[in-house]
Specification:
The chain is mostly helical. Helices cover about 40% and strands about 5% of the residues.
């Protein structure tokens, strides 16, 4: 049997509020997904042949057949909860949002005995879920790894017939490619999305460029995402009504302070 790399793993309470999970109409499929979380390895992967999944997840459930497991896996795949993919002769499972609530610490390693999904598998998941998948990246410190996936924030489709470049996606890409020392992380989108709720798009873009220039010249900061969040918090939201309305401006500023903790 492949190494699972750790003996225990928590399941976050947030799974109870997941609309993706709630939309699965088969209670057994929901249970299968939940029980796969402690079964996958530290990279969120596991065996994917139905008879293997049956033996690993439902070893004491004689009424559940491999054929039923196959139907459940297809439902979870279609919902974007898992990526059920083929590599060679065998199928495997990857939980693309597994690392949202998991962190590897100490001597736990981001290694897997299973092949990773192909770029085509990942792109198909992006299309199904209207999200962006980012690969796992090491955090600072020897032997400590954090694996992160894509965005928690839903983005709207702006171009008819496909996934358009939304302001959120454009600004995330701008930060990742422009600011020196930026290490992509699943929290990137949430950081910028929070700013976009209270700041105009052009202000967020301006701050990204300012931080990029400052970091290139000084190399001062280590946590670029955290630094960007702090720089954005210093920006006073702009009233876009076109009128000098002090009460309206103060209300927006108060809302911004409440959301971001800005002073």
């Amino acid at each position: 049997m492949a190494s699972r790399n750790c003996q225990g793993r928590p399941v976050s309470w947030a799974i109870c509020l997941s609309e993706q999970v709630a939309d699965v109409d088969d209670p057994w499929a929901k249970l299968l997904f939940t029980w796969m979380i402690p079964t996958v390895d530290n990279c969120g992967r596991m065996e994917g042949e139905p008879y293997q999944v049956k033996g690993l997840v439902f070893p004491l459930e004689p009424t559940v057949s491999p054929e039923q497991v196959a139907a459940m896996l297809q439902k979870l795949h279609d919902r974007g909860l898992i990526i059920w993919y083929q590599h060679g002769r065998l199928r495997y499972i990857y939980l693309p949002r597994f690392q949202r609530h998991q962190k590897l610490v100490g001597n736990m390693r981001a290694t897997s005995d299973f092949p990773e999904p192909s770029s085509e598998d990942i792109e198909a998941w992006n299309t199904r879920t209207n999200a962006v998948h980012t690969t796992y990246v090491p955090e600072s410190g020897p032997g400590i790894y954090a694996v992160s996936t894509e965005v928690e924030v839903e983005v709207e489709v702006e171009e008819e017939g496909g996934l358009g470049e939304t302001p959120l996606r454009r600004l995330v890409s701008l930060a990742r490619t422009t600011i020196p020392d930026w290490k992509p992380n699943g929290k990137d989108e949430a950081t910028i999305a929070a700013a976009l709720t209270v700041l105009p798009e052009h202000d967020v873009e301006r701050v990204i460029h300012q931080l990029a220039i400052h970091q290139a010249a000084n190399g001062k900061y280590k946590d670029m995402r955290g630094t960007l969040a702090n720089w954005l918090k210093r920006e006073k939201p702009t009233v876009q009504t076109g009128a000098a309305n002090d009460a309206r401006e103060e209300a927006i500023w108060a809302e911004y302070r409440e959301k971001t903790g800005a002073a």
